[in-house]
Amino acid sequence: MRARTDRRDWIAKRRGRTRHLIELGGLVVKAGLVDLTDDDRAVIFGLMVESAATLRSEHREQTLILWRRRGQRAFNGTADG
To answer: N or C: which end of the chain has fewer CB within 10 A?
Structure first.
């Protein structure tokens, strides 16, 4: 019985992770990155690596504020886009 419960827990966690990854992929599409890069995965990944580097810099907090504000406007449909 314990093995069945462990397997159910594992399946639930895997489904949750899968859903999370799908949602993140949807954000990439929603931001227009797929179309703007002609679906070039190396370019999209490069953008993400560059963003991560920016977040490791001394400008982290002000960058987060700026990006959060832009993201909220985009979610609300008021982004310049």
So the answer is: N
